[in-house]
Specification:
Blueprint: H1 2-17, H2 25-28, H3 34-50, H4 52-59, H5 73-77, E1 87-89, E2 92-94, H6 100-103, H7 108-115, H8 129-137, H9 145-149, H10 151-155, H11 212-215, H12 218-221, H13 232-238, H14 240-246, E3 266-267, H15 277-281, E4 284-286, E5 292-293, E6 305-306, E7 313-320, E8 325-329, E9 339-348, E10 351-365, H16 367-378, H17 384-418, H18 430-451, H19 455-484, H20 488-499, H21 505-509, H22 513-527
Parallel strand pairs: 3-4
Antiparallel strand pairs: 1-2, 4-5, 6-7, 7-8, 7-10, 9-10
Helix pairs in contact: 1-3, 3-4, 13-14, 17-18, 17-19, 18-19, 19-20
């Protein structure tokens, strides 16, 4: 046995001595290549001493059990000599950080879907007001600590290689390429990688097990989808779906989720007790005709409204001949053959640059198509009337938020900005902060609550706060500014036009004597208060 070990080590060392001849990603893709296998073994033997838990994660992963040959360290981490991230390590040319382009060798469809999704564009936060809060308002100029440890950990950073004065990558004592510590470690789902790609598969498929069973669990989505401005995790937990999931068994069988199953995970076949985020937005399900609906890595395929902006709109996806896509808002979808504007961001000198191009639409996924995609998953558990009625309830809440609060507030805020009542960015005035919280926090909570059947978030954390801030904070602050700028009459007229609408009449007219008497009587009976 000792002789075999000695012989094996000599063979492996000989392979590494051959240097970069084996350090090509084309060769590393071949799981049957003897040289690649030998390099993998050397990696594992060394890292068992250095990072034992890391290796054990891999040993019990689908990669290690792949039927067409183990997918080991070198299969994924191999690099071409001369690449910015490439460095020689123990005789092999490798890179530490992987991107979707590496995963694409085996997972081409999944990567194509992901890079065309909103997940892949999450890094564009760096060109938004959200980033200003984290990078400037809440951070020091020299560290940007809040955005580094906060926003970018979910949205993604722009990975920066440290370079010398000649532009060559700097290397540490282990000869590894050095990455700016303010941009990495980072597994944000919209990360901008040195190879130009967007995204990080590891955001959902945690290393080094990379299991689909991890990605399909709600706790995984909850790393980013929680908190005051997008509390999907909390909403899910209070919903009937979440209650069913958390009261179910993790195993297969009766009342079980079969959540740890390897490979495909089909609603109506492999499990039936409850849906997770993945089930509704991405997962496979049994269709009414008995066929299996394909899963997707584009999380927008089943979303008909966007609930993120100031005013919600319905989304139609335009697909171009080169495979790129764009979302076009509106109740009426674009037509095949027409021109549409494709917009993206590229990074130049560490800064985002907006790039636009006119392209011809070759395929359309309308908002109705996207809704029907979601309804397909719903119908695995629910009847058609229940599904249709749910969407009518949901739509009514979004329209109420839009028409009663968002559009009027947006109009008044725009007037104030145009007339010089406020200055600078959204965050330079109290009025700006109020408008920001109405749509970015409370308005989102209400809309997401309705979308995911979270009544408390729809009302008490949502529309209740929207109404309170609109009537008793935003409008008074607006009128105070109008008075300071001698524009009281103009703004009284504008506000009164809004408040004269039927949905706002309670504010000036009250509820009426009969209604108030009934309320007082009920309170007296329920809480023991005097009439």
């Amino acid at each position: 046995m000792k002789h075999l070990k000695k012989t094996f080590c000599i063979v492996v060392l000989g392979l590494f001595a051959a240097g970069s001849a084996f350090a090509t990603t084309e060769q590393s893709k071949n799981t049957q290549d003897a040289a690649v296998k030998a390099i993998n073994v050397k990696c594992i033997n060394c890292h068992l001493k250095e990072n034992v838990s890391l290796v054990k994660q891999w040993q019990h992963s689908p990669h290690a059990a792949a039927k067409d040959g183990q997918i080991g360290c070198y299969n994924c981490h191999a690099a071409n000599k001369g690449e910015d991230l490439a460095y020689e390590h123990e005789g092999a040319v490798i890179k530490t950080i992987l991107s979707p382009l590496d995963c694409k060798f085996c997972h081409e469809r999944e990567v194509k879907e992901m890079v065309n999704s909103h997940h892949a564009t999450a890094g564009e936060i760096m060109a938004s007001l959200d980033n200003v809060i984290g990078e400037v308002i809440c951070s020091m100029p020299d560290t940007k600590a809040d955005v580094v440890n906060g926003c970018w950990q979910c949205h993604g950073s722009v990975l920066k290689i440290k370079r010398d004065k000649n532009g060559k990558p700097l290397k540490n004592e282990a000869k590894a390429v050095m990455i700016d510590h303010m941009t990495w470690p980072n597994t944000g789902i919209g990360r901008i990688n040195p190879d130009g790609s967007k995204g990080s598969c590891m955001a959902c498929h945690s290393k080094h097990s990379f299991r689909a069973s991890v990605a399909r669990q709600p706790e995984n989505c909850g790393k980013c989808h929680l908190g005051p401005d997008h509390p999907q995790k909390e909403i899910y937990e209070e919903s009937k779906h979440g209650i069913a999931y958390y009261s179910a068994l993790r195993s297969a069988g009766a009342n079980g989720m079969n959540i740890l199953k390897n490979g495909t995970w089909v609603l109506g076949k492999d499990y039936y007790t409850a849906p997770t985020c993945s089930s509704c937005h991405m997962g496979s399900y049994v269709k009414l005709d008995g066929g299996i609906a394909q899963n997707t890595h584009n999380v927008g395929d089943r979303i008909s409204w966007t609930l993120r902006p100031k005013v919600s709109v319905k989304l139609n996806r335009a697909i171009f001949a080169d495979g790129t896509v764009t979302d076009i808002p509106g109740d009426i979808a674009p037509q095949v053959g027409q021109k549409a504007t494709f917009k993206t961001y590229v990074v130049e000198d560490g800064k985002f640059k907006k790039v636009k191009a006119e392209k011809q639409v070759v395929k359309v996924l309308s908002w109705e198509d996207r809704r029907n995609n979601m309804k397909g998953a719903c119908k695995s558990c629910h009847g058609m009337q229940q599904v249709d009625n749910f969407y009518k309830q949901f739509d009514s809440l979004v329209v109420t938020y839009n028409e009663k609060f968002a559009k009027p507030t947006k109009k008044l805020y725009g007037m104030a900005k145009k007339d010089g009542l406020i200055h600078g960015s959204t965050f330079h005035t109290e009025l700006g902060w109020l408008w920001w919280e109405i749509w970015h926090h409370e308005g989102r909570r209400a809309r997401h609550g309705a979308a995911m059947q979270g009544p408390d978030y729809t009302h008490w954390h949502g529309m209740y706060d929207v109404a309170h801030h609109f009537y008793f904070k935003f409008l008074p602050e607006l009128m105070k500014l109008a008075k300071e700028h001698n524009m009281t009459a103009k703004y009284e007229k504008a506000v009164n036009v809004i408040l004269a609408r039927p949905e706002h009449q309670w504010y000036k007219q009250g509820f009426g004597e009969a209604t108030m008497s009934a309320i007082k009587a009920e309170q007296a009976e329920r809480y023991g208060e005097k009439k």
